[in-house]
Amino acid sequence: MKKSQNTADDYSRLRLSNARQLNDPTEGTVFLKQVGFDLHTLLQLDYEPTNIFLSSMSKSSNENGLSDSLPMWKQYADNATGICLTYDRNYLKSLIKKKSDTDDNDSKVEFYRVCYTKELESDDNKVILDQIEIIKKELKKIYLKDSQSRILSEFDIVRYLFKESKYEYEQEYRLIKECNDDEIQIEKYGEMQVPRLFTYLSENLKYSKITLGPKCDDIDYVAPFIKYVDHNIEVTKSQIPYR
Questions:
Q1: Residue 82: inside a domain, yes or no?
Q2: In a domain? residue 18
Q3: I need a surface site. Which of 112, 172, 177, 190 has the fewest CB within 10 A?
Q4: How deeply is 175 buried, as exposed, middle or buried, from its count of CB atoms within 10 A (0-12, 13-18, 19+)?
Q5: Are 175 and 53 in contact (CB under 8 A)?
Q6: Of the candidates 204, 180, 143, 216, which has an alpha carbon nearest to the alpha carbon of residue 9?
Q7: CB 56 within 8 A of CB 192
């Protein structure tokens, strides 16, 4: 673990946040409750740090309109003053390709679709439901708190792939990486006294499109600068009337 000393190279790579330091307080608990952990037990046991780091994105299409959605602008783009970034397809493919045994200690990135609790009510997800039932039955055989604490660590990745259905409109996907200690960096954030943990991926970051928010400031300056930095990026403005 090392203190952040950001360089120009860092800003050209994707940054992943520690799974324990995300905005949603229910992160990681939805799956655990599905397999039988009660809230009281989680409050007692679920305090261990994690080496799981992730970055979230939404699947955008002409049908769902998520690349220009007012709820998304308001919640994730500083009340619609920010921008929406569309990843280059080949860049994403390069992140999730299988790494060979000859690679260095830079661990593999996994790509997953988030499962929402409402989906678990559907017979279409019978495979997931069956596996959850198997886990629940096995957990009932375990009573010791130290054993349950170890089990929590075994669920470290899968637990961050389940969310409440109220977030279903986001159609979220996640890039997840389990980091070695020497890949983790720390940085003070705003008024917070406790530093945040993060890591950077090694591949150079690439976007195919940038959409400026409905209330984005200085558009006449921002758009030309983006095109100057990378003339291959498509730059558009939100079509939502909002002020």
A1: yes
A2: yes
A3: 190
A4: buried
A5: no
A6: 204
A7: no
State in Å, rounded, how far the first CA of the chain is from the last one.
43
Give residue 2's pLDDT: 61
What is the mean pLDDT of each successive set of 10 residues along the chain, which is 243 residues long? 58 88 82 81 69 93 86 93 94 76 62 90 80 84 65 84 92 93 85 85 93 92 91 94 86
On whether the CB atoms of residues 233 and 210 are closer than 8 A, the answer is: yes
Indicate the length of the chain as a whole number.
Answer: 243
CA distance 60 to 142: 42
Q: Is residue 164 part of a domain?
A: yes
Number of structural domains, the chain? 1
- Which of the 8 DSSP states describes residue 164? -
With residue 166 as reference, give the H or E element that holds it: none
Can you tell me whether residue 3 is helix, strand or coil? strand
Query: What residues form DSSP beta bridges with 163?
Result: 116
Is residue 171 within 8 A of residue 115, CB to CB? The reply is: no
CA dist 59 and 87 (Å) reads 11
Contact 48, 150 (CB under 8 A): no
Range of the domain at 169: 2-208
Q: Residue 5 corresponds to which amino acid? A: Q
Sign of CA dihedral 35, 39, 42, 44: negative
